[in-house]
Amino acid sequence: MPHYDLAIIGSGSGNSLITPFWDGRKVALVDGGVFGGTCLNVGCIPTKMFVYPTSLAAAPREAGRLGVDLALDKVHWNGIRDRIFGRIDAISESGRRYRAEELDHVDLYQEHARFTGPRTLRTASGVEITADQVVVAAGSRPVLPDVPGMGLPQVHTSDTVMRIDGLPSRVVVVGGGYIAAEFAAIFAGFGVRVTQVNRTDRLLRGHDAEIAGRFAAAAAARWTLRSGLALHSVEDNGDGSVDAVFTDDDGGKVRVPADVVLVATGRTPNTDRLGADAAGFDLDEDGTLAADGYLRVLSGGKPLDGVFALGDAVNRYQLKHVANREARVVAHNLEHPGRLRSIDYTAVPSAVFSSPQIASVGLTEDQARSTAAPGTDIVSVVQEYGSTAYGWAMEDDEGVVKLVAERSTGRLLGAHILGQEASNLIQPLVQAMYLETPVHQLARGPYWIHPALMEVVENALLALDVDVPEDAPL
Ligand SMILES: Cc1cc2nc3c(=O)[nH]c(=O)nc-3n(C[C@H](O)[C@H](O)[C@H](O)COP(=O)(O)OP(=O)(O)OC[C@H]3O[C@@H](n4cnc5c(N)ncnc54)[C@H](O)[C@@H]3O)c2cc1C
Ligand SMILES: NC(=O)c1ccc[n+]([C@@H]2O[C@H](COP(=O)([O-])OP(=O)(O)OC[C@H]3O[C@@H](n4cnc5c(N)ncnc54)[C@H](O)[C@@H]3O)[C@@H](O)[C@H]2O)c1
User: Fold this and answer.
1) Where on this chain does NAD(+) bind (predicted)?
2) Closest ligand 1 atom to 321 CA
């Protein structure tokens, strides 16, 4: 039975735990999937490598409004696909080889494993591994609704849809979350007839209602949006195409023909396939591992020494920058058991790389108003890109910055941006929330470059009706 100083399940964010500290110590890295995990192979990176070319393909529509006639000649899907995965597959393989073959102190087990005790694992081939310290970085996987037709070759999740052969003519996207929004934009930008179907009227739940509403209006101008329909089945038409069949609130059937159906109905943590019960690990209601602030896994409500978790297996954000931060905390705690550091989830931002983009941090307006202490005055503002010089240059009529703050203190509670470069424009607002910089100081202290698109953020801050102290910068 091989014994290790450290055993890690998951080569995604878990891979970064193998720092020089472990040179001369024994490490087991166990991954039953593709080396490098979700973000590299089937997540953030390949999706964004499709988002950029699709934004170029959508340029003629934008340019025409500005007096520049552009034409899209052809989208070489297979060429784009092969360029993207030519890079990614090579990175995954060289990472795998480095761990498997070039590091004497690391053993890579390329198989599924289950816990048989808190620090004991059994791999699929029957190897028993024990370790002084263990990290669960097992990630999450797509969930498919339990309806007929999910096994048809035309039905995909985000794990497979990026590798399909040839650009389909018609894609049905099922779901109203991040993945649905991003892939609907990718395919629509490439000229595919996209129908996005959501169960409820509300896309991007969890986002500020006004931003989600504006996004839905913008999306409906780019692809077909249907709501109030639940997936009933996918049926094979026998000619290579399928019908995605939905039921409406009255039980009526709606059929949408498609060449590809992308099911994007959420992801579930891989903790159910881990033997968490045998290990005695506590699970939260959503299936994530329960952990304390030091990211030690709980058992019977108490932290297990030397058993840590990170990423989608333990947090509800399901975001790579959160998994990366947790990995830094866990790496420190593994190396310094006497000086544990805790994770800080202050002001976690996120972005949806759709068309238009959305970026968000902090509370929605509804959350701010409903959680405010009695007597607290909440203020908000919506500033249009089109109200700034760069917005005029772009003839923008979609983009907005929405800010939510506390009037008396000028504390920024939430920021929500819809439009071009939203994922970049949000960053000074993330900094302000993290560093607790009041709105009047952020707006009036630093210079903001004129006439950059970022002026829309400056103007939103200036327009927020917060109390400004007399000695505030002018
Ligand atoms: C399509 C898509 C786009 C995304 N885009 C973004 C984005 O733009 N920005 C962003 O911040 N986030 C994005 N995400 C989310 C992000 O990819 C994840 O939050 C992140 O990759 C999670 O990392 P992780 O280390 O927790 O898990 P993973 O990277 O999933 O690693 C877990 C690994 O554990 C292995 N494993 C699991 N169980 C076992 C077991 N029992 N035995 C052996 N091995 C096991 C798996 O094979 C896997 O390789 C996206 C996700 C998807 C699906
Ligand atoms: N840019 C990013 O940061 C990014 C991009 C992609 C994914 N991700 C992460 O991956 C996670 C998973 O993404 P996702 O879009 O799959 O999940 P999600 O939770 O964002 O959305 C799931 C959607 O599916 C719908 N749904 C659920 N069950 C359904 C059913 N049976 N029938 C019809 N609709 C159903 C829900 O109403 C919801 O609209 C996200 O939480 C996100 O954190 C992040």
Assistant:
1) 175-182, 266
2) 11
